[in-house]
Amino acid sequence: MVLLLLLLQSFLWRLNRVDLQTVKTVCTGSACYTSHLQNKNTTFQGAQKYCKDNGGNLVTLKTNEEASEIQSVLSRITEGHLDHNFEMWIGLKLEKGHCVLTDEVLKGYTWVSGAVDSQYSNWQQEPQGTCTEERCVAMHYTLHPSQPNRLEWIDRSCRDETGYVCKFNFKGMCKVLRLAGPGEVLYTTPFFTNQISKDNAFLSQIPHGTLATVSCKDSSHAQAVCKEMNGFFGWTSHGPFCDSDKQGCKFENGGCNHKCTDNVNGGVRCECKEGYSLAEDKATCIQIDHCQRSPCEFRCEQTFESFRCICPEGFQLTENQRNCSDIDECSSNPCDHLCINKHGNFSCICRNGFEMVDGRCQDINECDTSQCSQGCINMQGSFSCYCITGFHLSEDKRSCNDIDECVNSPCEERCVNSQGSYKCSCKEHY
């Protein structure tokens, strides 16, 4: 019975451990990825459970930037593989009772990580229409020269089996520990218990919470933890590690991030380039946050070795390159008629007789509103009224009054005036 329990315990221990021969790890940016492309007999539920149990989720691709990052990660993971085609679960699932929505980017599917606001998708073809079945998404990745790195999404049954990739996000990362002499660094990360090193993983950053164990060739040992300190992420033990008077700066730059100087009494001294400061480990160089002291009137943007100030729309930097002044947009005559400059913008106004249409001043046809009692002539920005024969324009320039032609005695005997005209008549018996 005891032997049976020991065998079962050994089996479970092996089951829970990660085989570094089949799993590859990449740590870059603010995340780590573990690939399980050789584990082709894993269902979607099994893949997500493994990722979740270790503090992560199946990988997400919500934006073009994330897709490019995954493509870069996969190119490292698959380096040296004889197989040119890979398929893996990603964290996209259609829950039972939810319908495929063809007009949406994700077609009604949701990310199991809870992520929202996806602007990216790359469906190989329209997913199978259903409202009653759970459906999951696998991604196809190829190294074939004719179809490189297409990352196409394939709608599949969640019970199908294939490989998968996990993603683990962290609030910060530390730089890889540098050694000043011969030795090895093994990292125990928060996402599984196996120790990894630069020999069996691609490590450009080390996640927050990682324990680093340093073993030097001279049999000395040290440990350090990646943690947040004073707003930065760094190692708790100060380097340089495996420091050797004989090696100095000759071995991997003495463990220094930037400049290494050999001390007269042995050891090395690390210094940083302009725009950087030395971290507490005395080896890592951290970019100085020039924007922290708010040098700009509006917005500050960190650059490689300094900073630059940015003004809102309608403003420009003054000579000191820190303050913002209003741009007089009217100086470039952007309007058809009148321009009024304002704080941060401007507005265009049309003269009387014109109206704004799609940003341009167009003539108003006043004759359409029938302001004249008889005839109307439209002009650019104005109009004029006229009267027909027998009438004259009144003082209001709009109304027409009858002309009394009889005033000028146009008739030999009697004259009878009428609206717009007149007539002559003779006395009786004539």
Structural class: mainly beta
Number of domains: 5
- Main beta-sheet strand count, sense and barrel state: 9 strands, mixed
Give unreliable regions as ranges.
1-21
| SS element count, helices | 3
CATH architecture of the largest domain: Roll
Integer-rounded radius of gyration: 41 Å
CATH topology annotation of the largest domain: Mannose-Binding Protein A, Chain A
Alpha carbon gap, first and last residue: 154 Å
Portion in helices: under 10%
- What is the residue-mean pLDDT, rounded to a whole number? 83
**CATH class group of the largest domain:** Alpha Beta
Quaternary state reads single chain
Query: Per the principal axes of the C-alpha atoms, what is the gross shape?
Result: elongated
Number of strands: 34
Membrane topology: Single-pass type I membrane protein
GO molecular function: calcium ion binding; carbohydrate binding; transforming growth factor beta binding
Keywords: Disulfide bond, EGF-like domain, Lectin, Membrane, Phosphoprotein, Repeat, Signal, Transmembrane, Transmembrane helix
Main location: membrane
SSE topology:
Layout: H1 2-16, E1 24-28, E2 31-36, H2 44-53, E3 57-58, H3 64-77, E4 85-94, E5 110-111, E6 135-142, E7 152-157, E8 163-169, E9 173-174, E10 183-188, E11 195-196, E12 201-203, E13 206-207, E14 211-216, E15 221-229, E16 232-235, E17 259-262, E18 268-271, E19 276-278, E20 285-287, E21 299-302, E22 307-310, E23 315-317, E24 324-326, E25 338-342, E26 345-349, E27 354-357, E28 360-363, E29 375-379, E30 382-386, E31 391-393, E32 400-402, E33 414-418, E34 421-425
Parallel strand pairs: 1-12, 4-8
Antiparallel strand pairs: 1-2, 2-8, 3-8, 4-5, 4-6, 6-7, 9-13, 10-11, 10-14, 14-15, 15-16, 17-18, 19-20, 21-22, 23-24, 25-26, 27-28, 29-30, 31-32, 33-34
